[in-house]
Amino acid sequence: MVNVRETYEQLTAITSADNVQVDEALKDHTYTRLGGKADFYVTPETYEEVRDIVKLSNQKQIPFTLLGNGSNLIIKDGGIRGIVLNLGRLADIRIDGTRMVAQSGARIIEASREALSCSLTGLEFACGIPGTVGGALFMNAGAYGGEIKDVLVNTIVIDRHGDLLTLSADDLDLEYRSSNIPEKGYIVLEATFALGEGDYDAIKSVMDDLTYKRESKQPLEYPSCGSVFKRPPGYFAGKLIQDSALQGQQIGGAAVSLKHAGFIINKDGAMATEYIHLIRHVQNTVKKTFGVTLECEVKIIGEDPSG
């Protein structure tokens, strides 16, 4: 059992009291607008603070969860015990020639825009991905034929013991929507990308086209976690869901989008439990109809509600 007062004092000895919230509603920090409370919600400002918080969690055996910007995540209604760490204050982006160094909390969209401003090509695919740089490495994010492993050179991480490591892209085992970051327990602090010199107008044209495709096809008017399922080999998840007559189906406030079948939206004040039940219903129906297993791309974490 975590001693709230003692843990609060230890955390505020590491970082500013403004950066430590108790019983913070996590639905305010996710794109789905779902989730219970965090015992401690901490937003450190330096790498040293991140390291010291990791070491504190180890020493005091306090549960520890890293939260990105909540764009590819469902947090259960029971919330998350212990420390929830958000690196949104680490958001610096620096460019030197054709190399970009972006901190973990920077939005990958902003990184693509910074590349555009310097007429650098390679990150156009990321102009519509809502996650952070750290989250993009975590899942080897990609879209429209590009992915993080195409441009990543190396990364600085903190391991589960609180040690800083510099790793090459090859060290992360980057594959389709996956890496070894969760398995190894790494916390990404920054990433270096190798970009190429390009023409500003040509880069902007590609980004404008991808932005149009995203805005015209995706239900951005509702809270959602983005694309829920990975693409099964030989199929498209959205097409399978559409052909299973699942569009518009609703459990509580969660619904399969009519605009894009691969999205489940928080249409009307959904609870995480309803959202997850709808995901399972979609998986079961597609499996029964087509014999295809849909694997979640979205990550589901946290505790079920008590009672």
Automatic annotation (TrEMBL):
Cofactor: FAD
Gene that this polypeptide is encoded by: murB
Pfam families reported in the protein's UniProt record: FAD_binding_4 (PF01565), MurB_C (PF02873)
Keywords: Cell cycle, Cell division, Cell shape, Cell wall biogenesis/degradation, Cytoplasm, FAD, Flavoprotein, NADP, Oxidoreductase, Peptidoglycan synthesis
Name of the protein: UDP-N-acetylenolpyruvoylglucosamine reductase
Organism: Lentibacillus halophilus
Function according to Swiss-Prot or TrEMBL: Cell wall formation.
Annotated ranges, domain FAD-binding PCMH-type: 34-213
EC number(s) given by UniProt: 1.3.1.98
